[in-house]
Amino acid sequence: MDKFIVLQDIITSRRSTKPAVLNGRKIDDQQIQQLLSLANWAPTHANTEPWRFIVYSGDAVQQFCHRHAELYKQSTPPEKFNTAKYEKQQHNGDKASHLIAVYMQRGTNPNITELEEICATAAAVQNILLGAETLDIAVLWSTGGSTLAPAMKEFLGTGQGRPHDRTAVHGVCGRTRQTRPPPPHRTQNKMDQRLSGLTPENLFFPSRCFLSKQKLRPITG
Ligand SMILES: Cc1cc2nc3c(=O)[nH]c(=O)nc-3n(C[C@H](O)[C@H](O)[C@H](O)COP(=O)(O)O)c2cc1C
After folding, report:
1. Which end of the chain has fewer CB atoms surrounding its CB within 10 Å, N or C?
2. Where are the alpha helices (DSSP H) in the chain?
């Protein structure tokens, strides 16, 4: 099959899955390793490869979720504390198989900005999400609760001596039989609004156009 069609199908079928609808079935560690090896193919400026993963499985998934809920409790002022959120966080791992915590390890190349390192880490995460779609693995990537808090860095053991590393997301992985909701309406109309410099003329003759910075201009010469 046409490579574009295959990739298009994977990208447009991918959906986030809430931990509450996981069914407790386990994923082979080998499949998680396959996902991580896809992550390693993400684009990375100057080959800094800043993505780092900590994988939890078995009881450690529940332990992570309990600890995460406690961090949320400790770091939230009483007037903002939400008991329902706390309890949900405690149970996020109950039916999960694995949990992947992702952080960005800041490199030492002064020419590479933090934003670039974060972008590269996000690209690695997207590779995992697309791989998971092909292996029928349900995932929710979350920055919720205390994921981005300094306390989470300490908990993951990534904070010592590396103040510029950043926790990124954690992904709860499992299996589900539940049909995921259809893709949200991501219309061509919206795409037009997101692509600056698009004019009716080059919209109809895209092969005669190329993207240069923010502009889509007709090719001349
Ligand atoms: C950086 C990032 C952080 C996210 N954090 C959360 C989160 O904390 N909780 C959550 O339920 N979903 C989170 N999501 C998932 C989004 O809610 C989800 O991608 C969005 O609803 C679109 O649905 P889809 O992934 O099925 O297309 C996050 C997604 C991204 C990219």
Report:
1. C
2. 3-13, 29-39, 59-75, 83-91, 114-134, 150-156, 188-194, 200-204
